[in-house]
């Protein structure tokens, strides 16, 4: 009975995956067709902006205090501070244990 259930599960799973792939294909075809219409460029730009915002971190620090105590504002300054920190962190020579 267990073998029969496994076969039935695999068959249903394959059918579900096939249907999902067909639906996804239809959705992409509709999307591409709508992008070629009059408002397509605007819609494409909106989709690109949405994808970009979804790819961003959920939390970004707006203000950071660096090691010398100076408060940094702005992404460029914060990024430079992290760069300095990691360069210093990764280039420290640790004592080796002889074994």
Structure description:
It is built from 3 helices and 2 strands, in the order H-H-E-E-H. It is about 65% helix and about 5% strand. The chain has a two-stranded antiparallel sheet. The chain is mainly α. Strand 1 (about 65) and strand 2 form a beta hairpin. The mean pLDDT is about 85. It folds into 2 domains: about 1-55; about 60-95, no CATH class.
Q: Would you kindly provide a brief summary of this structure?
A:
Helices cover 67% and strands 6% of the residues.
Which key phrases capture this entry?
67% helix, 2 strands, 99 residues, mainly alpha, 2 domains, flat, 6% strand
Q: What would you report as the Rg, rounded to the nearest angstrom?
A: 26 Å
Largest sheet: 2 strands, antiparallel
The N- and C-terminal alpha carbons lie at a distance of: 59 Å
Can you count the beta strands?
A: 2
Number of domains: 2
Arithmetic mean of pLDDT? 86
What is the 3D form? flat
Helix content: 55-70%
Strand order of the largest sheet: 1-2
Provide the structure class.
mainly alpha
Binned strand content? 5-15%
Low-confidence stretches are none
Topology:
Blueprint: H1 2-35, H2 40-55, E1 63-65, E2 71-73, H3 75-90
Antiparallel strand pairs: 1-2
